[in-house]
Each structure stands twice: as C-alpha cells, then as structure tokens.
User: Fold this.
Amino acid sequence: MSTELRELLGDLVQANGRLVRVAARHLAGTRAAAESPAVWRTLGVLASRGPMRVSELAAHSRVAAPTMTKLVATLLERGHVRRTSDPSDARASTISITDDGRAAYDEWRGAVAAALAPYFTDLAPADLDALRRTVRLLQDRIELGESETRTEHQDADLEVSTK
Amino acid sequence: MSTELRELLGDLVQANGRLVRVAARHLAGTRAAAESPAVWRTLGVLASRGPMRVSELAAHSRVAAPTMTKLVATLLERGHVRRTSDPSDARASTISITDDGRAAYDEWRGAVAAALAPYFTDLAPADLDALRRTVRLLQDRIELGESETRTEHQDADLEVSTK
DNA sequence: CAAGATACTTAGGCATGCTAAGTATGTCAA
DNA sequence: TTGACATACTTAGCATGCCTAAGTATCTTG
Assistant:
C-alpha cells in the first residue's frame, strides 16, 4: 500500500467533509435543505438500486438498522417512499421510492449542483476528466456488492411484481 | 454550465456521503472514532492554516460561530487545542493546535486511510492520477481565500426552482 | 461617553447515528 | 407438533452536530 494513496485518502475525506459543508450552507433555506443528507442518501440508493427491504437499505446506506427504521419513517411521512408488505415474510416489508420521492431527489441534486457549480467554473478539460473518473471510481469501489447485502440466503429474488 | 458538470457534482456529493459512512463504520470502536468528523475537520484547519480566532475557524470550517464555540470547548477538554487570549482584544482569543492535537489528527488520518485502503487496491495508474488531481482540485476550490474569512461569497444565480 | 458594531457564548431545538433491548415471525430439529 | 433459536424490524435512550435567536462583554466612534 503506497504511502501516497494513504495520504490521498486522508485528504479526500477531509476535502469531502468541507465540500459537504459548503453545499449545506449554500442550501440553507432552500427546499432542498428541508430534508437532510441521510434522507437523500437513502433516496439515492432506492433510486439507483430499486425497491428493497429495510435491512438491505440500511446495508447499502451504511447505517445501522434502527437508524434506517427512523429514516424510512421520515420518508414515509413525506411521501417519498412507499412500503409494501412482503407476502412471503410477514416480518419484512419492501420499501420503494415514489414518483414524488424521485422528483424530490432530482430537485435536491439540482440544488446541490447549482450551489457547488460556482466553485467549479473554468475547469481545465483534464480536471473535468479527473473529476469524472474519480466519481465513477468512488461509485464503483464503495458500492455494496450483490453478495454482501446481508446474510445472503435469498433464493433468486425474481421480480415478484410487488408494485 | 455544462449539464455533465452538474451531474458530476450531484454524484460526487452522493458518493462522498457514502464514502464517509463507510469510513465511519470501519472506524467504529477505534480510538479514531472517539472524536467525530467535525472535530477532525477543525483540527485539520488548524493544522494546515495555523492558529486563528474562533470566528475565522468557523468560517474555514464552514460552520456557524456557535457551533465552533462548542467544538472548541470539546477540543480544549481533550487537550487537542490551546486557547490564548488576545492582548489587543479582550473579546477574542486565539486557538492553536497542540502537539497532542496534531498527533491525534495524524492518527485519525492514518485510521481513515487504513479503513478505506482495502477498497482502493489495484488502482490503475490513471485512476490514481485522477484521484490525486481531483483531491487537489477540491482542496483548491473549496479552500477559503485569505480575503473571504468573513461571510461574503458570490451567491451565483442559483434559481433552484423552489417555485 | 453613549450608540452601535464585534467576538463570542448561552439556550433551545431538530436531525443523525449508535447500542441495547424489545416484539413478531420464521425455521428446524427432535 | 413444538420448543429453541434465528431474523426483521422497532422502540428507547443517549451522544453529537448544526442551526437560529438572544444574550454578554468589549471595542470603536461621532
């Protein structure tokens, strides 16, 4: 493991922290700020990976299960997600994003982009390339693999048409 | 403003959120987790920019002044920073990082790097380049300029379609 | 020297996260 | 069949992190 990579990762996390704070402060007062980061992270998972159970959602979103329970409750209140009981397991339920949730998520992304864009004007093509490549890299590496969703013993989760 | 840049910024913030969560969960239980992100962000500012007042620290760290007051109180308790009264202004005081604080900060960075490193093995040289370039880019763009310690930033047009 | 500006702190409130400890429900083996 | 254990999720309770509003000192100035 190169020393440089370690340095970079430390710097990356530090820079990320600031970036998030910058966005948060710019968003203050806008509708996008009404909900909070955890909410958007959760909606993002649902938007990109489709409906899933609370436990899976927690794993993908990298929070503890009880935390996700609360987030889901909030999202339900706002009408951003829908909960469907699972016919095959009365303990569980499937959470899916609603059109409203998707719209709110898109709006948030737009607001964040608008807030940060002024800081990234005049990007050299090479910088833009690097940014693009890094974003994809992060997405690839941090994404939760299919196998590690949980104790994976779900037999072929074939589209049960719950929606 | 290219549409692609906006997309990228949205994705970047989203990816960052997950990255931070991944690191947080890996760090759970370690000494590095004893303190929290805001604390490290603050120490990072002090480590890289030197001693400064509470208000400047708040501006650099992108939080409201009262928030920084609390953070400083925490850091003082832990012995990570030192507070010196300003002879020229009895209202203000200067905060500086202690050796202890610097050591703790370095340790945290090491812990974060160690936690995330496994996700970034086998990086293609081009990916490493992109990562390096992006980290520097973020640092440059988000860094608070000497002039703008105070709150005055171009608010751009925004227009977030808040309807 | 009184009025207003500043630097910071105190108060109060909400959101995120966690662990521990439930409550149902499901599974399996005797 | 049934009792023990595993699971899926929820409830409770606690510790930050952050914010706005409202102080409290302490400058600065007309």
User: Anything to note?
Assistant: The first helix of chain A runs from residue 3 to 27. Residues 3-120 of chain A form a domain with the Arc Repressor Mutant, subunit A fold (CATH 1.10.10.10). Residues 24, 28, 53-55, 65-66, 68-70, 73, 89, 91-93, 151 of chain A lie near DNA strand D (CB under 10 Å from a C1').
